[in-house]
């Protein structure tokens, strides 16, 4: 038996010594008083945010000087749910480049960037191409998958034609693969002579939109790493964006995906004021939740198109019956009440250009509440455009989302062109402009010499889903990274001490006992259950333990990003009795996976150790085999030449589950591994 004193004494011997202006008169509803008035955004800016100091408690940190718990303010803008909507995902930028060499990497790219934006100055296209070039230069075998066109389209671009276009852009030969049904054999045959392979058009396969598990497995066969670079499809559940992540040991965001995700997050940021949202289109009921979020974030909402008529109808103004959406009046009133509580203004046009339904070449200007029967609005009137220009001129942040044309008009309108010119002018000043939707992006691009000054999202569906508070499946499917920069000086008085990490630390009793007994080491518990972590941190505080700390996280994907920043040496990692139901080979969320093992082996100091144990032999054996396999010769069984199970716990301290198993007379299956290089 290796007693605790002997075991940690050996560790100590080895590691211990290396230790808005008054003249504006835009038509608006004064939500503060319930009456009509001329509104200015600037008059409210001093106190609008004073009540918005809410923040979400995400972790507890122990302050040694005061012996009190400190909560970390993560979001001072009140974005309490943003981390749930946008988990901090692993990115290709932060993925160890040495882990890419020789691997087959499947890349889901956005073909529309190639087919609709061949301009070499296109920022998104450049980022997407850079993802492919980066992987190619890192020595990966790159497998490209995408969809383009519509099924049955006789003009559908062939896979050979798209491969030629990619080859021209990348300056590297891209080889097409026509047969997805024989995908595995096709890959094996072609990888011998090529480095980049383009699979057939996914539009042809119904299994893609059904997120068919068998099709996902076939699609990713042979690949070990998945890179999603098609952010425009994040709102969909597809085999090529969600399903394949089950069969790859690492799933990360490409450079374009990462950039688009970052830009989308900025829509909800309120650091620049006044912030005005200009909202067009229709379907008020469908967008109600999103509109409420915008009312919370923005300093004003300007509606046009069919949405404006729902607000006008709710306020009792005369609106042509054909423009009233059924059952929308209740939601419109709720939005007005929400704006009233927040003391922000809701704006809509003062006048419209309209055409006569009988003589469509006959056009006249009507005030907002005075459109006569038989006339249909087709464009913003001159007064509305003038007042909108004045309103925009004082804004520091603008969101244009939705169609900027009326449903009854197919061609571009004067109002749309004028608005695009206004945005171009203001974007050249100190104002952030975000444009969402294909029509809006095209209108803005048509009047601008350069679109780099805008944030642009052609696929409005992704943005609307985010604004509705829904999790984007394409984002959630990627591996999660730890979202915060750790201050190890807060976690431990001396972060240079050797570190021992317990993965799946549970109630923390094992780690706390170890920390009490061995104060020359720092002990870190990683546990996915937030309630247990809070309880453990309270125990640390109450017990005045200074060398113990706990973090709520999924260590399987975040271990590297957390432990790599630790100033001292990592000398020991323990994994004890993982839940067997979550550690079956086919279970996607099993704890012991290749990415975790590689991170542990990379970060362990030479002669550092890994202790594994379980009361279920199959689980213990699988953990042992996986560590040996993915350790790639850097791990050996320590202290037992027969490579059998250890009869005794080497620490002299048992976890509560281990004690429970022993008390009932059942065996424990233990093994110690040591890093040799």
TrEMBL record:
It comes from Elaeis guineensis var. tenera (Oil palm). One of its GO terms (biological process) is gluconeogenesis. The keyword Cytoplasm does not apply. GO terms for cellular component: cytosol. Its EC number is 2.7.2.3. One of its GO terms (molecular function) is phosphoglycerate kinase activity. Keywords: ATP-binding, Kinase, Magnesium, Methyltransferase, Nucleotide-binding, S-adenosyl-L-methionine, Transferase, tRNA processing. Transmembrane segments: none annotated. It catalyses: guanosine(46) in tRNA + S-adenosyl-L-methionine = N(7)-methylguanosine(46) in tRNA + S-adenosyl-L-homocysteine; (2R)-3-phosphoglycerate + ATP = (2R)-3-phospho-glyceroyl phosphate + ADP. This is Phosphoglycerate kinase.
């Amino acid at each position: 038996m290796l007693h605790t004193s002997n075991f940690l004494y050996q560790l100590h011997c080895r590691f211990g010594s290396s230790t808005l202006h008054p003249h504006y008169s835009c038509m608006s509803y004064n939500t503060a008083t319930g009456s009509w008035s001329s509104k200015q955004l600037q008059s409210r800016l001093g106190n609008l945010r004073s009540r918005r100091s809410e923040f979400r408690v995400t972790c507890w940190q122990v302050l040694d000087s005061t012996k009190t718990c400190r909560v970390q303010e993560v979001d001072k803008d009140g974005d309490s749910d943003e981390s749930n909507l946008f988990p901090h995902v692993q990115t290709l930028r932060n993925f160890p480049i040495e882990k890419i060499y020789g691997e087959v990497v499947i890349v889901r790219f956005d073909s529309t960037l190639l087919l609709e934006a061949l301009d070499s100055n296109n920022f998104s296209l450049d980022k997407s191409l850079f993802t492919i070039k980066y992987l190619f230069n890192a020595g990966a075998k790159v497998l490209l998958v995408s969809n383009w066109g519509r099924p049955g389209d006789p003009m559908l671009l062939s896979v050979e034609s798209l491969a030629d276009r990619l080859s021209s852009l990348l300056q590297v030969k891209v080889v097409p693969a026509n047969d997805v049904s024989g995908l595995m054999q096709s890959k094996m045959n072609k990888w011998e002579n090529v480095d980049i392979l383009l699979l057939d058009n996914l539009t042809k396969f119904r299994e893609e939109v059904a997120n068919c598990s068998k099709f996902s497995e076939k699609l990713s066969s042979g690949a070990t790493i998945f890179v999603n670079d098609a952010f425009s499809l994040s709102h969909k559940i597809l085999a090529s964006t969600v399903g394949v992540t089950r069969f790859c040991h690492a799933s990360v965001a490409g450079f374009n995906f990462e950039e688009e995700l970052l830009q989308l997050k900025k829509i909800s940021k309120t650091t620049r004021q006044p912030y005005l949202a200009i909202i067009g289109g229709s379907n008020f009921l469908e967008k109600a939740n999103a509109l409420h979020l915008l009312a919370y974030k923005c300093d004003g909402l300007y509606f046009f198109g069919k949405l404006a008529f729902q607000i006008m109808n709710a306020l009792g103004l005369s609106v042509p019956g054909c423009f009233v959406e059924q059952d929308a009046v209740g939601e419109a009133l709720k939005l007005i009440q929400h704006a009233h509580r927040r003391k922000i203004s809701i704006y809509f046009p003062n006048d419209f250009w309209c055409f006569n339904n009988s003589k469509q070449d006959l056009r006249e200007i009507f005030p907002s509440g005075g459109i006569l029967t038989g006339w249909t609005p087709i464009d913003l009137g001159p007064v509305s455009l003038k007042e909108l220009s004045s309103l925009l001129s004082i804004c520091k942040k603008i969101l244009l989302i939705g169609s900027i044309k009326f449903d009854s008009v197919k061609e571009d309108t004067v109002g749309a062109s004028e608005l695009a010119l206004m945005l171009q002018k203001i974007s050249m000043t100190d104002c952030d402009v975000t444009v969402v939707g294909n029509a809006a992006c095209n209108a803005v691009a048509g009047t601008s010499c350069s679109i780099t000054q805008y944030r642009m999202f052609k696929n409005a569906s992704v943005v609307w889903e985010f604004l509705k508070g829904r999790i984007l499946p394409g984002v959630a499917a990627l591996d999660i990274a730890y979202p915060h920069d750790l201050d190890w000086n807060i976690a431990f008085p001396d972060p240079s001490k050797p570190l021992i990490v317990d993965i799946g630390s549970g109630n923390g009793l094992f780690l706390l006992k170890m920390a009490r007994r061995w104060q020359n080491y720092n002990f870190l518990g990683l546990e996915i259950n937030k309630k247990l972590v809070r309880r453990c941190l309270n125990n640390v505080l109450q017990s005045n333990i200074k060398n113990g700390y706990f973090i709520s996280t999924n260590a399987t994907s975040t271990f590297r990003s957390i432990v790599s920043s630790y100033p001292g040496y990592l000398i020991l990692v323990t994994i004890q009795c993982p839940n067997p139901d979550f550690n079956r080979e086919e279970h996607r969320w099993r704890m012991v996976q290749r990415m975790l093992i590689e991170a542990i082996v990379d970060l362990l100091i030479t002669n550092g150790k890994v202790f594994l144990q379980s009361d279920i032999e199959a689980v213990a054996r699988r953990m042992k085999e996986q560590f040996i396999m993915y350790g790639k010769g850097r791990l050996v069984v320590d202290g037992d030449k027969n490579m059998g199970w250890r009869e005794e716990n080497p620490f002299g301290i048992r976890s509560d589950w281990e004690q429970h198993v022993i008390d009932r007379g059942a065996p424990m299956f233990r093994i110690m591994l040591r890093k040799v290089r």
